Amino acid sequence: MWIEIFCCCVFIYTLFRCLLYDDDILEMETSDSSALFVVANRFEKLYGGKVYVGLRIPDADTGSRQNVDMVLVTEGEAVVISVKNLSGFVSLNADGSWNCESSNMQKTERLPDPVMETKKQASILESYLEQRGVALPDGYFSCKVVLPNPKLCIIPSRDFPSEVITYDQWVQQKRESKNMFSGWLKGAFRSGKKEMQESIHQKLNFILSTAPMWDRLELKGNKYVLGEFLEFKGKQEDVQALKNIKRSKFSRLIIQNTSMLGFAPSKLQVLYSPRDYRGEGTSDSELKEVTVRSSTEVLFQPENSTKVRKFKLSSIVSLSLTA
């Protein structure tokens, strides 16, 4: 009898998850994008300032765009940060590259030197900022590579460059120690004039807030996906109701449940805010609203993937579109 009850509970639980989350949601539970936002949120809590995630900086030398995981901007300094959501075992090669071996020892991957790659990203970002009228003093940017996955073992950690922040180092940092980071934040411009610091700080924040970025899906359960929004799919009347939502006009969508007590809704409210190129924010009075079926889907192509994924609106919290 107990076996039948257990099997019944498992079936109900599985059915419940399938109703609330589609297959793409379940695949994204441990995604690299979600790890980025965990790191970004903790950086902002520890150091203050602003973290910009998922940048796509134009590279004049190659004519392509350079992906930058995140940039932390505080008064007088900025840090370009790469996040490697690795698990298993990592060792350092003589040329600076990394050997990444899965925990079951069945798969080995060789990564180009992540520290050098991050420094290259910082150089491209500096050139981009200069093109937009901001010349930073020498040493303004520092670089870090963060390893936030507790299932990663560094062999041995002392051989890795100081720019690499292991999981143990990451979790041991505390808010009150933000001024004693021995190289995390270098304070490169602290000795300059206050007015010049504030000017560069303001310009840097403005340029990064308007720089090219990946579109962003926020899913239920604090999961995130970076990539490119393609279109809506669903009943003709629902797609027609959403036709005015274009990246040139609107920047963010918020999905709200219209049902009571959290039951699976048949309809959802989609609130969307007009794009504000002045950077002054959007008031509640400017928000537009449309109601569509919860089965309506968002077609989204994740970063570094050739596969287009479908996400039901019922599994989405918000969608942010870049210009």
From TrEMBL:
Coiled coil: none annotated. Pfam families: NERD. InterPro entries: NERD. Residues 31-148 form the NERD domain. Keywords: Signal. Residues 1-18 form the signal peptide. This is NERD domain-containing protein. It comes from Juglans regia (English walnut).
